[in-house]
Amino acid sequence: MEEKKLPQKEKPALNSYIKYSGLGFQMIGVIGAFTFAGYKLDESQQTKTPIYTGILSLIGVLASLYIVLKGLKSN
Questions:
Q1: Model pTM score
Q2: Does residue 30 contact residue 71 with C-beta atoms inside 8 Å?
Q3: Residue 9 falls within a domain, yes or no?
Q4: 14 domain-assigned
Q5: Each residue of 31-59: pLDDT tens digit?
Q6: Does residue 3 lie within any of the structural domains?
Q7: SS3 for the chain, per residue?
Q8: Stronger pLDDT, 10 or 58, i.e. the higher one
Q9: Measured distance CA(15)–CA(46) in Å, rounded
Q10: What is the distance between the alpha carbons of residues 58 and 71, in angstroms, rounded to a whole number?
Q11: What pLDDT does 56 receive?
């Protein structure tokens, strides 16, 4: 099977697209993991208001922003 070769100027655009979409998936994963942990804590503590879910989801947002900014700064 013959492999198609992209022109040189299209490769950096494709690489940056892959990098930034990967950062988006990392954000979704981190926020989702923190929110799920908060949900399970609320479930195990049998709280009436989902306080752990709220707090941990906000921590997840902050952590994901830190990861994204660190990833953008490295390049």
A1: 0.76
A2: no
A3: no
A4: no
A5: 999 999 999 999 999 999 999 999 999 99
A6: no
A7: CCCCCCCCCHHHHHHHHHHHHHHHHHHHHHHHHHHHHHHHHHHHHCCCCCHHHHHHHHHHHHHHHHHHHHHHHCC
A8: 58
A9: 46
A10: 20
A11: 97
The amino acid occupying position 60 is: G
pLDDT reported for residue 44 = 96
- Give the type of residue at 36: F
User: Helix 51-73 crosses helix 10-45 at what angle (to 10 degrees)?
Assistant: 160
The 10s digit of each residue's pLDDT in 15-34 is 777 877 888 899 999 999 99
Residue type at position 35? T
Domain around 30? 21-74
In a domain, 30, yes or no: yes
Number of domains forming the structure of the chain: 1
How far, in whole angstroms, is CA 3 from its chain's centroid? 32
Please count the residues of the chain: 75
